[in-house]
Design brief:
- The structure holds 2 protein chains of 2 kinds.
- By secondary structure, chain A is of the alpha/beta class.
- Chain A has 2 domains: 146 residues, Glutaconate Coenzyme A-transferase (3-Layer(aba) Sandwich); 241 residues, Glutaconate Coenzyme A-transferase (3-Layer(aba) Sandwich), CATH 3.40.1080.10.
- Chain A has 14 helices and 26 strands.
- In chain A, helix 7 crosses helix 8, helix 8 packs parallel to helix 9 and helix 9 packs across helix 10.
- The radius of gyration of chain A is 22 Å and the shape is globular.
- The relative contact order of chain A is 0.13.
- By secondary structure, chain B is of the alpha+beta class.
- Chain B has a single domain, classed as Ribosomal Protein S5, domain 2 (2-Layer Sandwich), CATH 3.30.230.10.
- Chain B is 38% helix and 27% strand.
- In chain B, strands 1-2-4-3 form a 4-stranded mixed beta sheet, covered by helices on one side.
- In chain B, helix 1 packs across helix 2.
- Chain B is globular and about 30 Å long.
- The chains are: A alpha/beta, B alpha+beta.
């Protein structure tokens, strides 16, 4: 028996895809992904309309999606992250229904609990055998962990694996297994793996960011959490990744061995684990090719599904034992609410990813952001969009001082005792405004173009259209 | 007769937190054209700083084109001062 069919079109026909159905994609190839576009083009050519697309993230490489929306092929969009090219179009109000933005945890949660069922899942797989045992760990287009696609594979009615490296059965290192897969299609290339290192994952040399990263490590030390068994999460921002490197120096110097690093895993995280600073890496997404290569070889670098990573529907997740997390922010307000969805003009340019899940559960959630970026102060009275609620953010680190959430007096006391530059968050806001001036707030439209959902799938905020000027 | 004698340019075209400013001789008063990443938030403030600097140097007939990528006010004013002085050189 073989599940290999001749083309994407044949697989779509066999899946009996029709108007009004829900299809899904995952984003491990980030801005290098070809699969979403290939599949959507075929679907559009077949004349199928009114589809719901549930993609773990959409990047600017997926720009053809905008035409499929305008042409009625796609009428509903669900994702955890959206880059600015597509976000700009969405903010013009091109969709009748708002885009649903979930987190990396609530997306699989809502797939599993049946709130957002998937009819056909398309899995981009760098290697698959003829029965659909597949993985991202090997192959010319390898991207590492395939964690975001696992809930799709396990719960969709029909699962189509699309690969550019078909191998003999059985593939012995499968991440998604044949018992979930209906059809396998081969294509010339599923993507350009060099596109993985896109968006927010480039390493920084910016002195302001490096200084914030050093401060972050001092905060971790002062918090008392820096001890054997510590677990750590770092995002894809420049400063948060730099913090990981400074953390390594301190841990080696003090001989501290942590438990695990979780999240999107970068080469920086791999370096920490190899240096003996942490025992294990729990990887839902490999942020660069170095991390992808390590996942294939390192037995202590494990692949986790998005559900196991940060969902509330499992019995526990990697979040439950998480001590310290470094997060980014586009804006943060005086109540510590964080915006990572929209820019200061209200244009969609991101999404929660794991931000909301991590902040919700972990012991100390630290946001690292400069006092201002391109003249725009980071601290505002009210964020443009609430992505993560302030009650879940513990610390803000800027290059001019640290603000601690009043809910965490304990941390504040420890930071002050350690001689750290603790300031009221309103003081940081005033410092930025003295340099930048007080920004005029951008006008919001009156049409809802997006809804932000939280860790449990609950409503957090709405995103509005951006009026044309 | 314009007080700006020649066209001059300052600034960094592809650098965030900076701006590019071009000044040219003109007639019939000062004209200011602004493009900015933060036009909504700081457009009025940028124009006000530009008018202020022109006034400081008694420039009354110039065309000023500002392409701003989020320069803070002190950077903007330094660029304005430089471009005005260059434009006034014979």
């Amino acid at each position: 028996m073989t599940k290999v069919v001749s083309s994407i079109r044949e697989a779509i026909e066999l899946a009996k895809l029709h108007d009004g159905m829900s299809i899904s994609f995952h984003h491990h190839l980030r801005n290098g992904d070809y699969v979403l576009n290939m599949v959507m083009e075929e679907i559009a050519n077949m004349g199928i309309k009114d589809l719901t697309v549930n993609a773990s993230a959409v990047f600017d490489i997926h720009a053809p999606l905008v035409d499929h929306i305008k042409n009625g092929v796609v009428t509903k969009l669900r994702c955890n992250y959206m880059s600015k090219g597509i976000g700009t179009e969405i903010c013009k109000g091109i969709m009748k229904e708002p885009v649903e933005f979930r987190s990396h945890g609530s997306r699989p949660g809502d797939i599993i609990n049946g709130k957002t069922p998937i009819d056909v899942a398309f899995i981009a797989a760098p290697t698959s055998d003829t029965m659909g045992n597949c993985t991202g760990k090997i192959g010319k287009s390898r991207f590492g962990s395939i964690g975001y696609a696992m809930a799709d594979a396990e719960n969709a009615k029909t699962v189509i694996v699309i690969t550019d490296n078909l191998v003999e059965y059985p593939l012995t290192c499968a991440s998604i297994t044949e018992d979930y897969v209906d059809y396998v299609v081969t294509v010339d290339a599923i993507g350009d793996p060099n596109g993985i290192m896109s968006g927010t994952t480039a390493q920084t040399r910016d002195p302001v960011r490096l200084r914030m990263a050093q401060t972050a490590v001092k905060c971790i030390e002062a918090s008392g959490l820096l001890k054997d068994g510590m677990s750590f999460q770092t995002g894809a921002g420049g400063a948060t990744m730099a913090a990981a490197m400074y953390l390594k120096d301190v841990m080696l110097e003090k001989g501290i061995v942590g438990s695990y690093i979780v999240g999107g895993i970068s080469s920086a995280s791999v370096e920490l684990q190899h240096a003996g600073c942490f025992k294990a890496l729990q990887d839902v997404q490999s942020f660069d090719l170095g991390a992808a290569a390590d996942l294939a070889e390192n037995p202590n670098h494990i692949e986790v599904s998005a559900r196991r990573y940060s969902s509330a529907v499992g019995k526990s997740s990697c979040m439950n034992n998480l001590d310290v997390a470094m997060l980014g922010a586009t804006e943060i307000d005086v109540d510590f609410n964080v915006n990572v969805h929209t820019d200061s003009n209200g244009v969609i340019m991101g999404g929660s990813g794991g931000h909301t899940d991590i902040a919700e559960i972990c012991n100390m959630a630290v946001v690292i952001a400069p006092l201002f970026r391109n003249r725009l102060p980071i601290v505002l009275d009210h964020v443009t969009t609430v992505s993560t609620r302030g009650e879940n953010i513990d610390v803000l680190i800027t290059e001019k001082g640290i603000a601690v959430n009043p809910r965490r007096e304990d941390l504040k006391e420890k930071f002050i005792a350690a001689g750290l530059n603790v300031k009221d968050i309103r003081e940081l806001k005033a410092m930025a405004e003295e340099i930048c001036g007080v920004p005029v707030k951008a006008p919001k439209g009156d049409k809802i173009v997006g809804e932000v959902l939280g860790h449990y799938g609950e409503h957090v905020d709405y995103i509005y259209n951006v009026p044309e000027r | 007769m314009s007080d700006i004698k020649k066209k001059a340019q300052v600034g960094n075209v592809d650098q965030n937190a900076d701006c590019v400013i071009v000044i040219e001789p003109s007639e019939g008063g000062n004209q200011i054209f602004l493009e900015s990443l933060v036009k909504t938030q700081y457009g009025d403030a940028i124009i006000a700083s530009a008018e202020d600097e022109l006034k400081k140097y008694n420039v009354t007939n110039a065309k000023l084109t500002i392409t701003d990528r989020g320069a803070i006010d002190c950077v903007l004013r330094a660029r304005l001062e430089a471009v005005i002085k260059r434009g006034m050189e014979a």
